[in-house]
Amino acid sequence: MVDVLVCVKRVIDSTGKATLTDDAQSIDGRFAGYTLSRHEECAIELAVRAAKATDGSSTVVTLGDGDAEEQLRTALAMGVDEATHIVADSSAYGPADVALELAAVVNDHAASGRSYGLILLGNDAADSGDFQVGIRLAYELGRPVVNGANTAEIKDDRVIAVVNGPDGHETYDVPLPAVVTVLEGGVEPKYPSVPGRMRAKRVTIEQREPRSELIGPSRVRLRLPEPPPSQVQILGTGSDAAVAVVDLLETLGVVGR
Predict the structure, then answer these.
(1) How many C-beta neighbours within 10 Å does residue 208 have?
(2) How do residues 74-85 score in pLDDT, each as one tens digit?
(3) Residue 146 Cα distances to 61, 125, 249, angstroms
């Protein structure tokens, strides 16, 4: 039996328009809405699968304000068993702070009899681009870590993680307990069903206060990339453009010559 912990973050919906806050330290979500990143949705799916395969349990944890409960309920609706909410203003926390708080959750739960053999996280934060939390958490706990895995499954007392590396698929065979960060693409998350959402509403979420002294983020600022340039070519007007359109379609291979 292996209990699995999956760590998530309330982030801006990437389908909306991104704007920065006045201090350029984070993305302003007032006009975009909030969600879970695709990486973390895949991590949730892997956590649920791994726990069920070993007759263990799965727990989701997040650090955020009261609104972050929405993302915890989503993970519960996707099949996670339990949830822990570190109630804090996430914008004031850097990767080192988050890793310390997550380590405190792991250690406190272990002291109460619930030890996590596998910890899963999204490979990087979808809003700020931070990719340090998984590595820092593994360091705090003294555990091996695999970054950027597409899949992770437990076999006996080990985790088998597959990474799509530059030269092809790489397979890592790591002893438990371990930490794995997940990239999307290896599994298809099962999105919440109506019964799942109803069950999630009934789950009591553990709430806790931060335990560590705050260090704060060390980033200088965020910068939005320039929008890609667009080009428009006028082929002609009216019937005079017909020949040019046919030539263009032939060039693109849409029609044969």
Answers:
(1) 16
(2) 999 999 999 999
(3) 20, 16, 47
Cα separation, 252 vs 244, in Å, equals: 12
Domains parsed from the chain with CATH numbers: 3-208 (3.40.50.620)
Size (the chain), residues = 257
DSSP state of 207: E
Beta bridge partners of 122: 182
Residue 236 C-alpha from the chain's centroid? 48
Residue with tokens 């700020």: 128
Q: What is the mean pLDDT of each run of 10 residues along the chain (257 residues)?
A: 96 70 63 84 97 97 95 97 96 91 97 96 75 94 96 95 89 97 93 92 96 78 68 74 79 72
CA distances (Å), origin 122, targets 47, 80, 102, 197, 248: 12, 16, 14, 22, 44
